Amino acid sequence: MITRRTRRKVTNFVMFTLTGVCTLVAVAVLFFILGYLLWQGGHALNWNFFTKLPVPVGETGGGFANAILGTAKLLLLAAVIGIPIGFLGGVYLAEFGGTTTSFIVRYTTDLLNGVPSIVIGIFAYAVVVVPMGHYSTFAGGIALGVMMIPVTVRSTEEFLRAVPNTLREGALALGATKWKSVATVVVPAALPGITTGILLALARVAGETAPLIFTAFGNAFWSPGWNQPTESLPYMIWKYATGPYEDWHQQAWAAGLVLLSLVLATNIAARFILRRQVGTNRG
Amino acid sequence: MKRIIPIVVLTLLCISCADNERTSAAAPPGPADQVLITSAGASFPYPIYSKWFDQYHRMFPQININYQSIGSGGGIRQVMEGTVDFGASDGPMTDDQLKQAKIKILHFPTVLGAVVPVYNIPGVTQEINFTPEVLAGIFLGKITKWSDPELKKANPAVNLPDKNIVVIHRSDGSGTTYVWVDYLSKISPEWKSKVGVNTSVNWPVGLGGKNNEGVAGLVKQTPNSLGYVELIYAIQNKMSYGKVRNSEGTFVKADLASVTAAAAATVKTMPADFRVSITNSPGKDAYPISSFTWLLIPSKIQDQTKKKVIKDFLQWMLTDGQNMVEALSYAKLPKEVVAMEQKALASIE
Amino acid sequence: MDSPSTVAGRMGARSRARAFRQRLQHGDQIAHLITLIFAATIIVITALLFYELYTSAAPTREKFGWRFLTGTTWDPVALDFGALPFIYGTLVTSALALIIGVPLGVGAAIFLAELAPLRLSAGLAFIIELLAAVPSVIYGLLAIFTLVPFLREYVTPLLGEIAGFIPLFQGVSYGVSLLAGGSILAIMILPFIISISREVLLAVPRDQREASLALGATRWETAWNVVVPYAKAGIIGSIFLALARALGETMAVTMVIGNDPRINLSLFAPGYSIAAVIANEFSEATSGIHISALIELGFVLFCITIVVNAAARLLILTTRRKALGA
Description:
The complex is a heterotrimer. By secondary structure, chain A is mostly helical. Chain A has a single domain, classed as Orthogonal Bundle (MetI-like fold). Chain A has helices spanning 4-41, 47-51, 65-96, 99-114, 117-132, 137-162, 165-173, 178-206, 210-213, 233-241, 246-274. The longest helix of chain A has 38 residues, at 4-41. Chain B is α/β, with parallel strands linked by helices. Chain B is built from 13 helices and twelve strands. Chain B is globular, with a radius of gyration of 23 Å. The N and C termini of chain B lie far apart (59 Å). Chain C folds into two domains: 7-56; 72-325, MetI-like (MetI-like fold), CATH 1.10.3720. Chain C has a two-stranded antiparallel sheet. In chain C, helix 13 (274-281) runs antiparallel to helix 14 (288-325). Chain C starts with a helix and ends with a helix. The interface between A and C is large, with 103 and 109 residues.
């Protein structure tokens, strides 16, 4: 006779195996993508790729250097715009907000998140490019920054909320003001999660092409400063992957690899800097 | 938190250093300032345009012509609004669009291209002949099988299977589509009234692939499919493409010679503004689905430096530039057209 | 005006204390104000977006009115535009993405948070986050070369045989289809669901787990009946983020959905989504009404997001009220 206990043990095993399979699927997808990129684009990666400008079709020795720099600049700008607004907005929602204002802010954040990337691009075009009269890195950075906000806000709020009230109360009992307790106790406690959210947002906008078409526009040459059109990795990938030439395709895959590595490096660097404390909540 | 600020500052410094270093490396100690010209438009001629602008930059390092292939429609819109210095399009601007533009826009043909029907029929390795009626019928959804009598009549020696034709068209608006439907409208009154001509149309049947590459990819993958792509894509992807019967009754395969023949036949009737469609043109060697592609130049350019650069470039394009096109599978402009354009250069003020 | 400190210095100890408390409160109020301003910026940006979309879409509204929402033709030549096929495609692919992605994502998150050794968990989570950085274009290209043939050759025939009596699974498939669109979206939303759910699950206090285990529950029972409900709000939040991404995803979807503006009940048939058609036609559109119609579509998507979010919030409110009331 199968006892209830046995059944529960079996369920335990089966469910955990199933969830393990789910994880395997997710991880397998990534390894598949990475493997494919490596296989297709690996040999196109050489020193030229990182230092030279693109050359026309049929010639060798070109690279994606301007795109790499362009993406770095765009992401920096996006971070400068997206992180403060997102983080402080999230802090507001979790710590300071009244019910109505919080509801409105949360609601609009979710709305913003659902806007297609191309519409954000069109929006940035209308609001930044047209008044300025030309395309620029600045416009591209704004478009990407706006896209970063919702994920940052959401995750900041969720992880701040997850910090137990005991920590807050403890800080207040020790005489800290509200903002000080938030800044020095609550936020650090939630920092690993918040960092995840920010890096996730950054990773997402790093791979976006559509918002850049009408803002950063693309540039076959170097783009000095912030006020001129600039090339970017996702845009180059799109152009080259949809071009007719086989070596363009390979360069596109190689660029994809570089983009992922860039994001990976940022990820590692950020986590190292913040020296994340592994959660000790698990039994 | 304390560690973040110096890190951020350091990153900013690194990036701006790299920025400045690059700029100073790119700009040689030359007399003139950097001239930056932005242009946008058609993606079909992107390979040759990028080659031209790169070559020009090498000849004159202070001149940076930045061309982005956002699509013919985008090129038209941007030049109409003035956000780019000049545009490019595979289809000429309509009268309405010309009226809407703030200043008069001039059309300058640059190269010739062709759109070819590509197909993937497992087991069939011979070339397939397409008559105009067959092409229109397939894309209208009236001819549904490869074994249709019309197709059999044009291809008596080919063993066409009795399978459904999977039609593949472009999902994104494009000059390639424009040329294709322009041809279909000319040879099929039903197409003209039912569907019409535009960079995007309401396709009666078929799946949509994004970009020439998307269509090529779908055709390669889907058995018994038929699509249309620019000649270069068919060649580069090593796809089978068929012959099309031209207005004189010959089945012609697209190549540089047949495309140039299509243009040459229309030279006598070329309008002064160069806005002409050469699909289904006369000439027994002409490939019927050919097209010019144009640069859209504003007739009045305020900035004197930019105006000189653009005019010089166009002059170069019409002479030395033309010698570079065939290597990339584009057809040269006929000499008569070149002569006409050189005269028209004077009208840029 | 004299500063509080000088006033306090003149007034004595008790007033000094009061002034000190005032400054403390100001500190808090400043913090409140600053965070409020930043939060308000979000509202301003969204409102501006709404306004821009609304005004640019005006010509279409004037021409079509409500017919736009029910029309099924999309003809850029005849300038006849209707949004229904795109609304249908967007909703179907997003729903499919959630149906496939949420169980996979939450399952993986539970595994990573509850069972996997911590180092492995952190490492795997790190890798999965990278998935979010893969450009949409690359997802699309890989899907064309791998997912689409896979669906066409293996999955759809199988599904057709097993479940062919349901209209959802009927008909021939060329690979590019609503199913392909939904599947690629499911993969793309995984990193969001997994990363955030995992972090939220890890944040559940230890004593909850220990209490449950002490009562004799198995680890799975603890995870499913104690930890997950505790973290429910966060998990649902991650699902929202995922849904929003699915609704607005552009490049990858347009490469695999078939781009056919027709409404077909079968998942094997090609379809079209709002974001895809905007991405496809916006650069090329030259007639004012065409552009306006595309923007109107963007506006419609915006409204769909409003409705979906409202419905979901209502759902949360009612469940919370039930939980509290129980």
